[in-house]
Amino acid sequence: MAIRRICKYGEKILSKKTKTADFKALKPSLAALLADMFDTMDIVGGAGLAANQIGLDLRLAVIKVTREEDEVRVVIINPEIASGSDPVEEDEGCLSFPGLFAKIKRFSKVKVRALNEKGVPVEITAEGLLAKALQHEIDHLDGVLFIDHLPVMSRLKLKPVLMRLKRQWKKTDESRMVRRPSGGRTAK
Which of 28, 48, 82, 126 is least enclosed by beta carbons within 10 angstroms? Predict the structure, then answer.
């Protein structure tokens, strides 16, 4: 499987709503795509990755979180948030904004409807980190970035920092990273 380059802040694909996935057309290449997405997310230590973050105009995302001692892997195709409750404000980051974190208000509990990797309709009821990851990835698929949730004044103050970081991020290409046997990572 391949590590894909992650699109960074400023790239147009991140700010547009993705196209609905045609599961039948996607099915032949889905297993390889999902493996690439999970591998890419793992090498940078992420909890979720949307298809448009790797340059694909496709309503698909993957999430991997650890709950207690279990690893939960979720694939959502054409997801929609059915309901949300109990808003909380917590630090949040994004693979498209490496190293940047901000306090974002999200629901602590959500219900999401989607297709799974087998094309079966599912309803996911989640709370905590999984709920936050679901909302974050669905936002990506809708062309909404996590910083879009910040108050206007906070976004204005963040602009100069983003411009400086944007130049630095242009040099980052995750597809050139490889895993070391010890579990770390290095550039090719």
Answer: 28
**How confident is the model at residue 178, as a pLDDT?**
63
- The 3-state secondary structure of the chain, one letter per residue: CCCCCCCCCCCHHHHCCCCCCCHHHHHHHHHHHHHHHHHHHHHHCCCEEEHHHHCCCCCEEEEEEEECCEEEEEEEEEEEEEEEEEEEEEEEECCCCCCCEEEEEEEEEEEEEEECCCCCEEEEEEECHHHHHHHHHHHHHCCCCHHHHCCHHHHHHHHHHHHHHHHHHCCCCHHHEEECCCCCEEEC
**Domain spans of the chain, in order of start:** 12-177
Contacts of 105 (CB under 8 A, 6+ apart): 87, 88, 89, 149
Q: Measured between alpha carbons, how far apart are the two ends of the chain, in Å? A: 16
* Whole-angstrom distance, CA of residue 35 vs CA of residue 95: 17
Decide: pTM greater than 0.85. yes
The pLDDT assigned to 14 comes to: 97
- Residues with catalytic function: 137
pLDDT at 170: 80
Q: Which residues of the chain have pLDDT under 50?
A: 180-183, 186-188
Q: Which tens digit of pLDDT belongs to each residue from 47-82?
A: 999 999 999 999 999 999 987 788 999 999 999 999
